[in-house]
Amino acid sequence: MSPPLLKLGAVLSTMAMISNWMSQTLPSLVGLNTTRITTADSLTQISPKEGWQVYSSAQDPDGRCICTVVAPEQNLCSRDAKSRQLRQLLEKVQNMSQSIEVLNLRTQRDFQYVLKMETQMKGLKAKFRQIEDDRKTLMTKHFQELKEKMDELLPLIPVLEQYKTDAKLITQFKEEIRNLSTVLTGIQEEIGAYDYEELHQRVVNLETRLRDCMKKLTCGKLMKITGPITVKISGTRFGAWMTDPLASEKNNRVWYMDSYTNNKIVREYKSIADFVSGAESRTYNLPFKWAGTNHVVYNGSLYFNKYQSNIIIKYSFDTGRVLAQRSLEYAGFHNVYPYTWGGFSDIDLMADEIGLWAVYATNQNAGNIVISQLNQDTLEVLKSWSTGYPKRSAGESFMICGTLYVTNSHLTGAKVYYSYSTKTSTYEYTDIPFHNQYFHISMLDYNARDRALYAWNNGHQVLFNVTLFHIIKTEDDS
């Protein structure tokens, strides 16, 4: 409760206490304890012979307290005990009247203050009510506006989520563009520092230096085979495809010979891309059918084994004529000493960094592999090496830098199992695995220009990459 209200409560409480005291105590002072007080407007009649007559307390129109006392009839002016009581009573009443007057003044003043505060409180109450009404109205209005805005923004939430995702991509793009711009700026500055002729000369000089470095590479030793890379799917289960290791860099012709027997058609393609798309550039009809799949193209000519014989044929693609043919003495043929898969693969012709080779088996060498280096023009055997590896136990073989590498199978799980060096006339057992992806290899030849193995794997034309260990020649090497 606020201070004005406390003051009002104290005034009212004091007035009630005074009224109660006057109605109860005053009669006892004059010996009239049995007198009953009625309301302010009524008077209790007491016999004049019994004692004093007293009106109860009341308020005048101005709000002041009034007490009325009537003396008894007899001996009014005598100096008996009742006269003394009356005088004492009059003194007390006078004292009380003075106190009541002071109290009345204070009450009037506080009452006016209360009336003023009441007016102010009513005004404040009205203002609070107005503020409350206005607040509710404003809140309702603002809430409605916010709700409408939220209804408008709700469809944007999925869009914002997408923007968050897109923002990450945009940040990545910005970073990539920034990096690319830096690179391009560097290239531009580099190009700006030299004219075209200088740049071209630098490229030519670099190419020359690389070629000189390559010339210093001695023949490497096979360390690893990786792949394969599937170039095309075509033909039957058995066949051969190849490029010329001595062809120029601009000459990328591909030759394709399907099947291992009863065929004389050789198909030519200008490039690997034409081979993949099937765009033939030329077709050759050989004068003889071939045997097996172990043919080789070397320096513009095709070398192959004539069907049902141990005769080797050299055929020129440029002239369309047979340039040479020679019997390979004692060489088994027509599935006498084939590879494990058969297919008249008795005589395997191949080429490497050193030259042209023939791999076969003879009765004189107990069916074991014989390696012969051939003269590419006359097909004469220049030198031969007899190995102890059975030809019929070999899956396939190929030459790299004068060393013959032999696989142990043509099926899944095949690996390079044996090698024979013609330089040292020594052999060793190796363990170089490779992935026989299509389960049946019927042709596997090394190309020195591409440093790759060409293979025919169950109707798939594939390439294997090879890793060689090289030794750099020094000026002191002879």
From TrEMBL:
Give the highest taxon in the source lineage: Eukaryota
Where does the record place it?
A: Secreted; Synapse
Q: Which InterPro entries does the record cross-reference, listed alphabetically?
A: Noelin_dom (IPR022082), Olfac-like_dom (IPR003112), Olfactomedin-like_domain (IPR050605), Quino_amine_DH_bsu (IPR011044)
Q: Which gene encodes it?
A: Olfm3
Record lineage:
Eukaryota, Metazoa, Chordata, Craniata, Vertebrata
Q: Which UniProt keywords apply?
A: Coiled coil, Disulfide bond, Glycoprotein, Secreted, Signal, Synapse
One Pfam annotation reads: OLF
Report which residue ranges the record marks as coiled coil.
Answer: 79-141, 170-216
User: Where does the Olfactomedin-like domain start and stop, copy by copy?
Assistant: 218-470
Q: List the disulfide bonds.
A: 219-401
List GO terms (cellular component aspect): extracellular space; synapse
Instruction: State what protein this is by name.
Output: NOE3 protein
Biological processes per GO annotation: signal transduction
Tell me the organism. Answer: Cinclus mexicanus (American dipper)
